[in-house]
């Protein structure tokens, strides 16, 4: 069976614990379900058989006692099963709330916005702090401390392959721990209704070997290169002189606003608009022209640019690798 | 006989209910108003008195007035773009306060939009070309709500920052009332 994208496609110890608990509860519940339905079917058959014959109901005192005992045993068994579920859930909860393994953890601060994700990698050296959007890279085999913040309403951070859900609450700092045991690329989504575009608030999780992770980190830390060809240079001036600069930042340029996603390395990301569209030139153009046709109600306004300006702007954005 | 009355009653209830449901008008959220009026370029009129031939009235109309969605978007943009850096949530600091009823450059939506677009002496920068038209009107609608110039219903109900409150001197005179008849 293909479990891709579900909690059963586990990629970490914590997700494995959750999947084990889920299988345990599903199995016990399935057995209980079959037993209850079988017993009910037998009782119905017996009552029907008695009605067609002229046999009177069995009201002898020993029968009453036997029935009372059976009901008592069933109630006790139900209580015991539920208590076992409580104990198993508490045990799992305790096991997954802490970092797995003793390696030095990395810290990522996640901020939920309507409707995109901001990731800030923190480091002991402030110049190594990295801000990126809608794409979370983590090294395999290292615990990741995820600090969850929100800028507006309650969101929920959920990577089904790695861990359970944890809310991002405005004015409150939540923490969760991740650890990927195998490399992979997964889609994660907001798991708490957060407004009209909640459904289009996804991000990509990329778990890769520590070496590749470091390579990615260094490449992302670099400032954007100044464009060299004339079209891209014109595109940069469109970006800096129009509405783009009010919300987006590109490091190495005067654009430094953090209202919308950081675009310093937008061309290196697989998708745009919080996982709504694959990152192609055509999609980027459609998005800039009128984002509301793709994601109605999104915070970004439409930009009716002239074809020349739009082409130049796309040329510029494509240089932001 | 009685069943006919009941049946007729059911019809009436259904018709009244349907009419009620149709009468409920939900506020329109204009997410993407690319046809939003462009701010009037040129001089901002603060007074109808002027020399020479009367200038034509400004034909620009804000669609954001009294619209709760637009006012809340304006509030979000006001914080996002750091208007509070100078106007301090409307209380004023480096820039003038926006929650009182003194307006140097006019209080109408057109005046406020012109102020944002043109900039003003002594610090207010010009945002010409940097802010999309609809967002200008949203900002103006929010700025007006801070001064109590919007109806109460669409204005932000809960605010973590300062709030507009009518000065006590400007409220109607109230005479004290005895809670119980005076004792002889």
Output the CATH topology of one domain in chain B: Cytochrome Bc1 Complex, Chain D, domain 2
Summing up helix and strand content along with how strands pair, one would put the structural category of chain A as: alpha+beta
Distance between the termini of chain A: 38 Å
Biggest β-sheet description of chain B: none
Q: Using the coordinates shown, work out and report the CATH topology of the largest domain in chain A.
A: Immunoglobulin-like
CATH homology superfamily name of one domain in chain B:
Cytochrome c-like domain
Gist of the model:
The complex is a heterodimer of chains A (321) and B (184). With 321 residues, chain A is α+β, with helices and mostly antiparallel strands.
Question: Your description of this structure?
Answer:
The complex is a heterodimer of chains A (321) and B (184). With 321 residues, chain A is α+β, with helices and mostly antiparallel strands. Chain A is 38% helix and 19% strand. Chain A has helices at residues 13-52, 61-96, 210-221, 230-241, 281-289, 307-318; strands at residues 106-113, 116-122, 130-133, 135-139, 144-150, 155-158, 166-168, 174-178, 184-190, 202-208, 271-272, 277-278. In chain A, a hairpin with a 2-residue loop joins strand 1 (106-113) and strand 2 (116-122). Chain A is elongated, with a radius of gyration of 28 Å. The two termini of chain A are 38 Å apart. Chain B has helices at residues 2-23, 68-80, 84-87, 109-118, 133-146. In chain B, helix 2 (68-80) packs across helix 5 and helix 4 (109-118) crosses helix 5 (133-146). The radius of gyration of chain B is 24 Å and the shape is extended. The termini of chain B are far apart. The model of chain B has no long low-confidence stretch (mean pLDDT 82). Classes of the chains: A alpha+beta (321), B mainly alpha (184). Chains A and B meet through loops of A and loops of B.
């Amino acid at each position: 069976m293909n479990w891709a994208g579900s909690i059963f496609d586990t990629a970490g110890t914590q997700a494995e614990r959750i999947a084990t608990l889920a299988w345990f509860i599903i199995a016990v519940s399935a057995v209980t379900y079959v037993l209850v339905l079988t017993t009910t079917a037998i009782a119905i058959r017996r009552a029907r058989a008695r009605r067609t014959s002229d046999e009177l109901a069995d009201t002898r005192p020993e029968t009453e006692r036997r029935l009372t005992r059976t009901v008592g045993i069933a109630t006790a068994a139900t209580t015991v099963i539920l208590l076992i579920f409580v104990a198993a859930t508490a045990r799992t909860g305790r096991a997954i709330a802490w970092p797995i393994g003793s390696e030095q953890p990395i810290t990522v601060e996640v901020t939920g916005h309507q409707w995109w994700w901001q990731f800030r990698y923190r480091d002991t050296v402030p110049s190594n702090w990295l801000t990126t959007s809608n794409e979370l890279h983590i090294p395999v085999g290292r615990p990741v401390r995820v600090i969850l913040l929100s800028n507006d309403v309650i969101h929920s951070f959920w990577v089904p392959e790695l861990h359970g859900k944890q809310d991002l609450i405005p004015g409150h700092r939540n923490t969760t721990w991740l650890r990927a045991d195998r490399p992979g690329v997964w889609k994660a989504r907001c798991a708490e209704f957060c407004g009209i575009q909640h459904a289009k608030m996804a991000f990509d999780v990329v778990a890769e070997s520590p070496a590749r992770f470091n390579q990615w980190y260094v490449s992302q830390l670099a400032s954007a290169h100044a464009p060299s060809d004339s079209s891209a240079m014109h595109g940069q001036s469109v970006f800096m002189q129009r509405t783009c600069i009010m919300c987006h930042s590109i490091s190495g340029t005067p654009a430094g606003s953090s209202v919308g996603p950081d675009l310093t390395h937008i061309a290196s990301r697989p998708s745009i608009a919080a996982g709504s569209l694959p990152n192609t030139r055509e999609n980027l153009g459609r998005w800039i022209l009128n984002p509301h046709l793709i994601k109605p109600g999104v915070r970004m306004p439409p930009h009716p640019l002239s074809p020349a300006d739009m082409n130049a702007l796309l040329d510029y954005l494509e240089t932001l690798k | 006989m009685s069943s006919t009355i009941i049946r007729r009653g059911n019809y009436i209830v259904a018709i009244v209910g349907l009419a009620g449901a149709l009468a409920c008008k939900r506020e329109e959220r204009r997410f993407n108003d690319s046809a939003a009026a462009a701010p009037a370029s040129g001089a901002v009129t603060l007074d109808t008195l002027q020399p020479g031939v009367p200038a034509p009235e400004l034909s620009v109309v804000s669609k954001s007035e009294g619209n709760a969605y637009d006012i809340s978007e304006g509030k979000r943009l006001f914080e996002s773009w750091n208007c509070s850096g100078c106007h301090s949530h409307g209380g004023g600091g480096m820039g003038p306060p926006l929650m009182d009823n003194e307006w140097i450059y006019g209080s109408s939506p057109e005046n406020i939009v012109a102020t944002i677009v043109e900039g003003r002496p002594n610090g207010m920068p010009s945002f010409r070309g940097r802010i999309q038209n609809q967002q200008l009107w949203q900002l103006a609608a929010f700025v007006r709500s801070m001064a109590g110039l919007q109806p109460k219903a669409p204005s932000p109900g809960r605010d973590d920052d300062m709030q507009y409150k009518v000065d006590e001197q400007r409220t109607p005179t109230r005479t004290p009332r005895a809670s119980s008849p005076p004792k002889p």
